[in-house]
Amino acid sequence: MSGRRFVRFALGCVFLASCSSRGANSLELHVPKVVEAEVGKETSISCNFVIPENSSYAYVKWFYMEKSERKEILSKTQDGVDLKESDMKDRVGISDEFALSISKVAPRDARTYWCQVGAGSAGFAEKQAELRVSKTPETSVTVVSDGIGASKDDLSQIATCTSQNGYPTPSITWYKDQHPLYPNGTDPSENIDFVIDGPGKELKEGDQVTLRCKADGYPEPDYTIFKVEDQLLNAPGGELTLEHVKKEDSGTYYCRVFDFESMYELEANVTLSVNYIDVPTITPEHHEALKEGEDLELACDAKGSKPLEFKWKKKGKVVSRGKKLSLFNVTHETLGNYSCVVTMPEVAGLVHSKHVFVNVYSKPSLTGEMHQEYVRVNELISLSCIAVAVPKATILWSAPNGTSGHSHRNGHVNSTLQIRVTPELLKSGINCTAQNNLGLAEHHFSLQKRPDPTPPSTRIDKEARESKGVIIVAVVVGILVIAVLGAVLYFLHKKGKLPCGRSGKQEITRPEAHKDEIVVEVKSDKLPEEAGLLQGANGEKKSAGDQGEKYIDLRN
Ligand SMILES: *[C@@H]1O[C@H](CO)[C@@H](O)[C@H](O)[C@H]1NC(C)=O
Ligand SMILES: *[C@@H]1O[C@H](CO)[C@@H](O)[C@H](O)[C@H]1NC(C)=O
Ligand SMILES: *[C@@H]1O[C@H](CO)[C@@H](O)[C@H](O)[C@H]1NC(C)=O
Ligand SMILES: *[C@@H]1O[C@H](CO)[C@@H](O)[C@H](O)[C@H]1NC(C)=O
Ligand SMILES: *[C@@H]1O[C@H](CO)[C@@H](O)[C@H](O)[C@H]1NC(C)=O
Ligand SMILES: *[C@@H]1O[C@H](CO)[C@@H](O)[C@H](O)[C@H]1NC(C)=O
Ligand SMILES: *[C@@H]1O[C@H](CO)[C@@H](O)[C@H](O)[C@H]1NC(C)=O
Ligand SMILES: *[C@@H]1O[C@H](CO)[C@@H](O)[C@H](O)[C@H]1NC(C)=O
Fold this sequence. Notes:
Strand order of the largest sheet: 2-11-10-5-6-7
Bound molecules: 2-acetamido-2-deoxy-beta-D-glucopyranose
Shape: elongated
Number of domains: 5
CATH architecture of the largest domain: Sandwich
Largest sheet: 6 strands, mixed
Number of helices: 7
Strand content: 35-45%
Distance between the termini: 119 Å
Structural class: alpha+beta
Number of strands: 40
CATH superfamily of the largest domain: Immunoglobulins
């Protein structure tokens, strides 16, 4: 073997990245970069090579690195295998394919191994492999035996997880359901919940709606709620409240959570649909006043998010269902305010309306309002006359001295007269007249004089008051008599002048106030005094003192 050639080849290896990646004439070598092995099991590290034509291998050697020093494990030549002295000597071998085999793998076997192939005139090549050794840890979980207190602030130990004989040193992760728990209770957000919280399933304009976003991470992550990508909405804590939603608020809302620890981004979306009814339109919007006997057709329309229902109302009463209102052969009674009321049957509480005043040429119809029932001479009274007519009526009063004010809406005139009552007015009453070019109407107010200052009702009052007085006096006298009688009887009893018969004692000496007490105390079955009285009634002769002692005994 030429020493010179050997050196040249070694220099070549310095300048080229790999000695094996040479041309067709060079030695090609393949060794796995990393080999995983488990403690106690067997493993092997392969070493495959291709030798140029007309050459054959001279030797294959396996080494391991120990403190940056290469130590030969074995070598194989055409003559056989030569096991070198090493701490692996009795556990190693080489296969026909030159793979190094190691049995009963130990943790210390985790190191770098080299395969070197010598091929005579083709030179030699070598490559390294890293052996990694691991051992599945033996894991056991011990649950705290004396129960777990559920307290919000205190941390309590739930269980202990022990891992033994793992190699390399294992890490322990607790899972709650599918989710890993992190030290100090942090857990990155993995799920995000984004919901619409409103008064019902169907939302309508004016409702208060809250969009709630919640991720399951701890501590709570920051939430971003937006509708269109760059239009961020102020949503502290993941909550966005819309006080009075409008149809413009409808759309898709997004909630985004970014967990800086896990670099995890989560996004959820909800679609908000706000039901609405646009302000209805009535056609024709304006019309000429109708003559009696003519017809009028009105149509109402509105846009809404869901099917709509139309009604026509006059003075709160439904006069027609549907979009159309047809008025045939109108009279002055047709005249008035008609409302088109639009509702959405699927969404309760959503309603919109619009009104139109239907003008019908008519002579006035008149109603009178008297603001007091009885009047007195010199009193200031007020009366109103309300006329409905097209064209608008003028109202005249038969007593022009009073002041009168007018107020009118479409077709209506309300004229109010304030006047001081004279004896003449009491007699004649007051007339009001409403008039337009189609006719007139008159209303007569008769004034009723207020009755006498001492009407019969007052006398009844007086009688009632008097009888009440009599009852009070009688009660007071009765109480006094009982008190005096009681005092006399007590006095006589003290002096011993009254024989103390069983029934007598019971009936007479019991003061009035005690009667009530007895009723109450019998129920509770406790008071000695009452017990004494009952026993007395049963004929037992026990003194009041005995009972008192018993009472104390009971207390003790
Ligand atoms: C290999 O050897 C054969 C005969 O032994 C010879 O004919 C051939 O040319 C050789 N090839 C090379 C590349 O040296
Ligand atoms: C966990 O809490 C302890 C004590 O409160 C603290 O020292 C430690 O830094 C915390 N670890 C993490 C990962 O937050
Ligand atoms: C909303 O989220 C769902 C899944 O959560 C997704 O399939 C859908 O594309 C999202 N819609 C929009 C408009 O982003
Ligand atoms: C219209 O009403 C008036 C009175 O109410 C009645 O006399 C007349 O016949 C009605 N005309 C038609 C066409 O119905
Ligand atoms: C109206 O006032 C005049 C004088 O001011 C008086 O003569 C007349 O009696 C009054 N009429 C009524 C109804 O009060
Ligand atoms: C008609 O009715 C509406 C509401 O129903 C009311 O606001 C309006 O003042 C009424 N108009 C007249 C002229 O009575
Ligand atoms: C007419 O006007 C008076 C005074 O303003 C008022 O008290 C009364 O209620 C009105 N009547 C009607 C029907 O509007
Ligand atoms: C009021 O009208 C009636 C007829 O409707 C008439 O007899 C009376 O004299 C009138 N009274 C006054 C004060 O004008």
